[in-house]
Write a structure and sequence with these properties.
This protein is α/β, with parallel strands linked by helices. The protein folds into 2 domains: 136 residues, no CATH class; 172 residues, P-loop containing nucleotide triphosphate hydrolases (Rossmann fold, 3-Layer(aba) Sandwich), CATH 3.40.50.300. The protein is built from 12 helices and 9 strands. Helix 6 links the parallel strand 4 and strand 5. Helix 2 runs parallel beside helix 3, helix 5 crosses helix 6 and helix 11 crosses helix 12. The longest helix has 18 residues. The chain is globular and about 65 Å long. It starts with a strand and ends in a 5-residue tail after the last helix.
Length: 338
């Protein structure tokens, strides 16, 4: 029998220094390289984005010009990768971070960086990150005005210190081909910095699923139990009731969700029900992101993964986060169990 665990029994603690040390590409992209990114020939923008990222890495790593009267060259232009779900933005971002090297770069999601500022303080965060050549920000969020203002100020301080910034965000599947709303929103929100950014567009379908949502198939408790019984004996799996886990997430700061699921090889959740509460939904989004970072298979019974967020939630301000979570959770629900 595999080792059993309950996420609801865990109360992880993460020191600010650990948050800073954890600003590296997630485990799922630990081996990502430019060579392992395979552009879709049907979408030339993918090859163009790859070339841009290669060139950016070379520019960041170029040695400074020496000479008594020569000024230091300006940092390479910052880049905003704009595209829908599953077109390889995170792969390219992680590849860039690996190419530049961990001693010269930091990599984190928008949420992780806002949590870092909360834990370390603004001045200390600026001081720590200003020593780098590159900051990679995955999943830049534009739906929280307070966090967006905070991040815009942080980026301004870092850009003034010579740090190259590369950010990604998502365009909703239904908005593709109707204008680059994500890019326009990004530039508007960081207007003091917009001139320093180059927008790189990446087109293509979500490699996880073409419509951005998993299937409307409900896993029964009996089917979930059968899959659980088939897990290898050397694996560690967690099994929790849906409601219990959601309540537990409310007692833990989201910056600790990664530690919550560390060393878990698969997650089983029983009795899922559709959500219609944004506070609960946003916590679930962060958990799904951390599970996806670690490529942890997930099985959910009670409600189909595609139906976990209510129609209201999928039509309002946080819908980009919810659609991303559905895309990622759908992928994890199809992962082979250990």
């Amino acid at each position: 029998m595999p080792a059993r665990a309950h996420l609801t029994d865990r109360m992880p603690e993460v020191a600010p220094s650990e948050l800073l040390a954890g600003l590296v590409p997630p485990p799922q992209f630990a081996g990502a390289t430019f060579e392992s990114y395979h552009p879709d020939p049907a979408h030339p923008s993918q090859a163009a984005a790859l070339a841009t990222m290669r060139g950016l890495a070379e520019a960041i790593l170029a040695p400074p010009r020496r000479g008594l009267f020569r000024k230091a060259p300006p940092p390479p232009a910052s880049v905003y990768l704009d595209g829908g779900y599953g077109v390889g933005k995170t792969h390219l971002l992680a590849s860039l971070a690996h190419a530049v090297g961990p001693e010269r770069s930091a990599y984190g999601t928008f949420v992780e960086l806002t949590h870092l500022v909360g834990a370390m303080g603004f001045a200390q965060t600026v001081s720590a990150l200003s020593a780098l050549r590159l900051l990679c920000i995955d999943e830049f969020e534009l739906d929280d005005p307070g966090d967006t203002v905070l991040m815009s100020r942080l980026l301004r301080e870092l850009a003034d210190a010579g740090v190259c910034i590369v950010a990604t965000s998502n365009t909703l599947p239904e908005a593709l081909g109707e204008g680059r709303f994500a890019a326009e929103d990004f530039m508007r929100e960081i207007q003091a910095l917009a001139a320093r950014f180059t927008v790189v567009r990446i087109d293509g379908p979500d490699y996880r699923m073409r419509d951005g949502r998993p299937e409307h198939r409900t896993l029964t408790d009996e089917e979930l139990a059968a899959e659980l019984a088939a897990v290898g004996d050397d694996a560690t799996v967690s099994q929790d009731a849906w409601g219990d886990l959601l309540a537990h997430l409310a007692r833990i700061h989201p910056s600790r969700y990664g530690r919550l699921v560390d060393d878990v090889d698969a997650v089983f959740l029983t009795g899922a029900a559709q959500l219609d509460d944004d506070m609960v939904g946003l916590r679930l989004v962060v958990l799904v992101d951390r599970l996806y970072d670690r490529d942890v298979p997930v099985r959910v019974s009670g409600t189909a993964v595609a139906d976990l967020f209510s129609p209201r939630m999928l039509s309002k301000g946080y819908r980009k986060k919810y659609f991303r979570a559905l895309s990622r959770l759908g992928a994890l629900a199809s992962r082979r169990l250990p």
